[in-house]
Amino acid sequence: GDSVITVQLTEEDKVEDDVVFYLVFTGSTVQHCTSTRKINPGSLETISPGHDCCETVKVALCASREGHPVLIVAEESFQFVQDEAYDAAQFLATCAGNQQALNFTRFLDRSRPPAADVDFLDEKVALAFRHLKLPAEWNVLGADQSLT
């Protein structure tokens, strides 16, 4: 999630001022609805939502006009893919409270990626973490609540 998506409209679907377009992403367990922004008469843009798993979802471009029913203008598939941020979030969630497992941060210290890359990865990991499916009893300290 959190990437810019551009939608190119066909000639007959060009943006009119009184039409509102939005995208509906339908996955196996989650549905997202996102607004769009008109870039020009033939293009829309939105930000892809964060999702709870890596899968291909159905995306419907819908159009709404006051006093008229909502129309599905087009449908397509969209793939949420696994990346290093998703892997890192999964790893951190699985290893909560395990001091040995968290030594991977030493790798970052040794490899010394540029600060901007670390900041970007941090933002992506935080986004991925927000969308993980975690058990209700999960917490950042892990099972051992006596850790300080």
UniProtKB/TrEMBL annotation:
GO cellular component: actin cytoskeleton; membrane
Transmembrane segments: none
Keywords of this entry: Kinase, Transferase
Domain of life of the organism encoding this protein: Eukaryota
A biological process term (GO) from this entry: positive regulation of canonical NF-kappaB signal transduction
Single GO term (MF): MAP-kinase scaffold activity
PANTHER family found in the cross-reference section: A-KINASE ANCHOR PROTEIN 13, AGAP007712-PA
Designated name of the protein: A-kinase anchor protein 13
